[in-house]
Amino acid sequence: MSANPAPRRFLRSDPSRRRKVPIETVQRWVFAVILIHIGGSPALALAAYSPHMEQVKHSTGVGLWIMSGVVGLATTAGVLLIHQRSLLSPWLVIGVLPMTVAAFYVF
Question: pTM of the predicted model, to two decimals?
Answer without folding.
Answer: 0.77
